[in-house]
Amino acid sequence: MALDKPYQDVPGTTIFDAEQSRLGYHLNQFCMSLMKAENRARFKADERAYLDQWPMTEEQKQAVLARDLNWCIRLGGNIYFLAKIGATDGKSFQQMAGSMTGMTEEEYRDMMIAGGRSIEGNRVVGEDGDAQPHRQPQGKSQQKAGA
């Protein structure tokens, strides 16, 4: 029986839960293998041959080859493991995050320095923007009604 997952309706968000962990187990194990210099060298020498040593799905392999981290995440990848691919390619986490948002590294850096993304669009479907109402400041009219 599938568990009720109310968090699945956050637009544009993939939650790394137990199901995602199972889905991406071999993908994430491949990523962890890149912590060893000899494995990084083997991967860089022949990426496809190295990937074929892992029981990943063909789609997972294609996502890695394309360096499409958002695709990898949808297929069970965890960003902390996927960062090993970026490090193998000589990319910083900031460069990787920028690529995942469609921004340049500089645009991403500037956005984060300015306080991060706007909350606009970060909503649970059907909640009119109050994804976490218990954390939202209460307006005067709401405070009086509750008093």
Q: Describe it for me?
A:
The protein has 10 helices and no strands. The protein has 147 residues and is mainly α. The protein has a domain at 14-89: Protocatechuate 4,5-dioxygenase, Chain A (Orthogonal Bundle). Helix 2 runs parallel beside helix 7 and helix 8 (93-101) crosses helix 9. Mean pLDDT is 81; it is low at 129-147.
Summarize this structure as a short list of keywords or feature phrases:
147 residues; mainly alpha; Protocatechuate 4,5-dioxygenase, Chain A; 10 helices; disordered C terminus
Q: What is the CATH level 1 assignment of the domain at 14-89?
A: Mainly Alpha
In terms of quaternary structure, what is this?
A: single chain
Q: Please identify which CATH superfamily of the domain at 14-89 we are dealing with.
A: Dioxygenase LigAB, LigA subunit
Radius of gyration: 19 Å
Mean pLDDT, to the nearest integer, reads 81
CATH names the topology of the domain at 14-89 as Protocatechuate 4,5-dioxygenase, Chain A
Report the portion of residues in β strands: under 5%
CATH architecture of the domain at 14-89: Orthogonal Bundle
Give the termini separation.
Answer: 43 Å
Shape: flat
Count of alpha/pi helices: 10
Q: What's the total number of strands?
A: 0
Detail the poorly predicted runs. Answer: 129-147
Order of helices and strands: HHHHHHHHHH
Secondary-structure content class: mainly alpha
Main beta sheet: none
In short:
The chain has 147 residues and is mainly α. The protein has helices at residues 18-23, 25-33, 37-45, 47-51, 58-66, 69-74, 79-88, 93-101, 105-113, 140-146. It is flat, with a radius of gyration of 19 Å.
